[in-house]
Amino acid sequence: MGKPVTTPDARSTTAASPRESAPAASLKAPPVQPKTAAAFGATATLLALIVLSVAWEWWLAPLRPGGSALVLKAVPLLLALPGVWRRRLYTLQWASMLILLYFAEGVVRGWSDHGLSARLGWLQAALAVIFFTCALAYVAPFKRAAKRAAKEAAKQTAEPNA
Predict the structure, then answer these.
(1) Is residue 22 part of a domain?
(2) Is residue 50 in a domain?
(3) pTM of the model
(4) Cα distance between residue 3 and residue 5, in whole Å
(5) Of 23, 65, 84, 102, which residue is least crowded by CB atoms under 10 Å?
(6) Is residue 56 a contact partner of residue 73, using CB atoms and an 8 Å limit?
(7) β-pair partners for 6
């Protein structure tokens, strides 16, 4: 068997094939030290946003008494939760784009609503900013390592031709 190679999610490993050629093996990104605090922050903030969305639209300040269908806005966050929990880079990337919609809604409702609903809107916007920051802080080192590995691979493939 080949030696273990760290995958981009930084937690699982796969065995490298002994038949891999040197250039193909060099395309692997070097291991990156994951920022566990950022991953924990993203997970905790996502959970808080899910709880806030459900509580806001069912009990705290629903648009209609007894709750509203806006409680369904928590569904996309629930779909992202397993991948964020497992620190999947792809999920953190698309969730960081999705969270911008929740930021926008929080700002709009913070400005336009009154009372508790306005405060909840600002809380949602703040949680969205925290999630976005944590997700980017976790993903950025992996993106930099991949870019560095691609640059080195391009340099290695250019050297035999020179």
Answers:
(1) no
(2) yes
(3) 0.77
(4) 6
(5) 65
(6) no
(7) 13
Does the pLDDT of residue 128 top 50, yes or no?
yes
The two structure tokens encoding residue 91: 């999920």
- H-helix segments, the chain: 22-26, 36-55, 75-85, 89-112, 116-158
Q: What is the pLDDT of residues 4-30, one digit of tens each?
A: 444 455 444 344 433 334 444 445 555
Give residue 64's domain range.
Answer: 37-146
Token couple for 95:
């969730």
**pLDDT score at 162:** 57
Is the model's pLDDT at 41 over the cut of 70? yes
Does residue 141 lie within any of the structural domains? Answer: yes
Number of compact structural domains in the chain:
1
- At 161, list the tokens: 């031709």
Nearest CA among 137, 140, 138, 145 for reference residue 28: 145
Q: Is residue 101 part of a domain?
A: yes
Rounded CA gap, 158 and 162, in Å? 7
